Amino acid sequence: MTGLRTLVLGFGAIASGLGRDEKMARYFDFACHAQALAAHPGFDWRGVVDPAPSAQADARDNWQVPQVTAEVADAVQAVRPEVVILAAPPGARAAAVAAMPDLKAVLLEKPLSGPEDNDGDDLAAICAERNIPVLVNYWRRADRLSRTLASGGLVERIGRPQAVFGLYGKGLANNCSHMIDFVRMLIGEVATVQALGPARAAADSSVPGDQALPFALTLEDGQVASFGTVDFAHYREVGLDIWGETGRLQFLLEGLSTTVFPRAENRGLENADEISPDAGEMLEPTVTDSLYRIYDNLAAVALGSATPWSPLSSALVNARIVDRILQSAAEDGRRLTVD
């Protein structure tokens, strides 16, 4: 079977550069889009669009992409893409998609829009009108362990959540949006948000104008997830800590460390239990092929045999939550609904 004709817009770190990170290679077989596209039989990777000569040289020399150009129109004419990977910054992505008449599916990198455009909403409107499905690369939606936990495995292991704590760096729109999405995936939808401190510029974020601040999410079932932020100049961490009725589940190092702590007899008090901090069971990480599994889903969606695991409609909810958190901060921490 011939693979889907595929075009990549934007060929920087997410599309290619992370594949050269030697430490990531120990844990991630597919750390960038290029690695997944080169290996996946469902795709015929024919083109790359990027204005940077260095990115064009990378695509030609390291990945042997046959059509490499700085112009979308030239690539569309040469490739006639059925699938496009949008790894370029927002601003003109909706217009690029509008110029691709043969599209069957889109894979989008966040952020959905820039600080001065509505690219995500415009893209959603164009794709809805043409019935083109859009996936957003919230990769935990494809991770095997995360999907098992979301489908009942979390409650089986630790009972119903009682308290949820999150930690992130590099900005709300950057890494924190992944944690917001993860909470929604594992526990439930967000009803209200509340800033717990003033917003500050996230200077280390790759998203222009990104902000960072502590905040709380109240879920539809009344559960509260509280988030703090750390400066990656000191160390890197993006994690989630869930305390359930019968155990604790801790996600650290962006999926490389997932530990279950059991309930046991309290060592310091009679007729009481504890969550044993020194009896944790580390679960086998499954992050190594999560991006490849996104492409599994993308191919099936493009062929009409599956629904998106991480649809644009869900990603727009994450963006709305981020916007409301920032609005809450601007209004001195007023609690706001997510609508």
Give your account of this protein's structure:
The protein has 2 domains: 4-132, 3-Layer(aba) Sandwich (Rossmann fold); 143-285 and 320-330, Dihydrodipicolinate Reductase, domain 2, CATH 3.30.360.10. The protein is 33% helix and 25% strand. The chain is an alpha/beta fold and 339 residues long. The chain is globular, with a radius of gyration of 21 Å. Helix 6 links the parallel strand 5 and strand 6. The model has no long low-confidence stretch (mean pLDDT 96). The longest helix is centred in the C-terminal third of the chain and has 19 residues, at 312-330. Strands 7, 8, 11, 12, 13, 14, 15, 16, 17 and 18 form a 10-stranded mixed beta sheet that branches. The chain has 10 helices and 18 strands. It has helices spanning 22-27, 33-39, 53-63, 72-79, 93-98, 119-130, 144-158, 172-186, 290-302, 312-330, and strands at 4-9, 43-49, 67-69, 83-86, 105-108, 134-136, 161-168, 190-195, 200-201, 211-212, 215-219, 224-229, 239-244, 247-252, 257-265, 273-275, 281-283, 336-337.
